[in-house]
Every structure is written in C-alpha cells, then in structure tokens.
Amino acid sequence: MTRLVFIGPPGAGKGTQAERLIRERGLLHISTGDLLRNAIKAQSALGVQAKAAVDSGRLVPDEVVIGLVEEGLENAVGRAGYILDGFPRTVAQASALEAHLAEKNLPLDHVMLFDIPLELLEARIKSRSEQSLEAGGSSRSDDNPEVLKRRVEEFIRATAQLSPFYEQRGLLRRIDARQDVEAVAAAIASTIGG
Is 11 known to sit in a ligand binding site? Predict the structure, then answer.
C-alpha cells in the first residue's frame, strides 16, 4: 500500500500528478475540498459543522477536517493506497493524522513537496486559464493573479511549519515542480518505487 501526502501551492501540478497515479497505480485521491463539499451536500454531522464555518466566512475547524479525512481514509481499505491532497495544512492536523495512522499501524510513506517559484506559478495559471477559454470553457474563479497571490501567501503561511515537521520524520521529498509533467512524474516514480 502506498500512502502519500502532496503539498504545494496552487498551480504546482499536484492535481495532474495525482491523476496519473490514480490511473497508473489505482491510488485513491483524497481531496479535502471534495470531502468538505460532499459532506455539506450530504448534510452529515461533520458537513453541518463545516457549512456553518463556511457560511460565516471562518476556516473549517481542525476537528471537522480531521474527522472528514479519517472517514475518507476508510475508503482506502483494500486499495493500492492513497494520495492526501490539501491535508494536512497545519502541524496540528499533521499530528492528528500521524496519531490516527499510528493507531492503524499504517504510517505515511512519503510527503511530496512540490517546489516551484511564484513567477512560474503565475505563468502556469495564466496559460491554464487561456487554454480553458480557447477550448470554449470558462476560466476557474481562482485563475487570476490577485487570487493566486492570496492563495500562495496562505499556502506559505499555513504550511511553512509542515516542512520541518516531516523532515524530522524523514518523510519529506522535495519535487522540482519547475520541470515538465513527464520529468515530475519520473521523479515521483523514482521516489515511491515500482
């Protein structure tokens, strides 16, 4: 079983690489954004708490996000493994995840940090938006320079302490996300084996 966490700013290529691993290795993609949307739509107990936070403009409390991720991890049973995307975002969340996985005797294998400079992110987001518009679609609401800048700043602030947390545990793997899709995929494959 392969157990991975993908960490990186928006536009770093996490989604593209996750899709490859899902297709090629049968991994389950556990996205906290998807978990939150699904729980809110289903009006589960955690979903009701999440909706209250979202509606009031507050961050969804850690205990709600952790509960949703723990539920999501149950879906990985019997699978080849999983990729956690968008979680953890804080050391508190990372510690809770570590404790949950230790209980199950299923520790993480690798935490992939997608390293990429801000100016390249801006170029990628602009290109993604243009391609979407050319294909007759609409650009994503977060595909503009101001929103990107805020999201990158939030990423840096929220995840700055995660790197040392996972480095101390020998789990952090830095991926040079400036490379093309194939080179990044090869770097990930080299790290996780197989």
Answer: yes
Domain with residue 22: its CATH number is: 3.40.50.300
| DSSP structure string for 108-170 | -SEEEEEE--HHHHHHHHHHHHHHHHHTT----TT-SHHHHHHHHHHHHHHHTTHHHHHHHTT
The response to whether 89 counts as a known ligand-binding position is: yes
* pLDDT tens digits along 118-170: 778 777 777 766 776 787 766 555 556 676 677 777 778 777 789 999 999 99
Boundaries of domain holding 174: 2-189
Question: Does 194 fall in a domain?
Answer: no
178 annotated binding-site participant: no
pLDDT tens column, 50-92: 999 888 878 789 999 999 999 999 988 888 999 999 899 889 9
DSSP tag of 61: P
| Residues labelled as active-site residues | 14, 89, 128, 140, 151
pLDDT value of residue 59:
78
**58 marked among binding-site residues:** yes
Residue 177 near residue 115 (C-beta atoms within 8 A): yes
Considering the domain boundaries, does residue 114 fall inside one?
yes
The total number of structural domains in the chain stands at 1
Which of 112, 104, 128 shows the shortest CA–CA distance to 190?
112
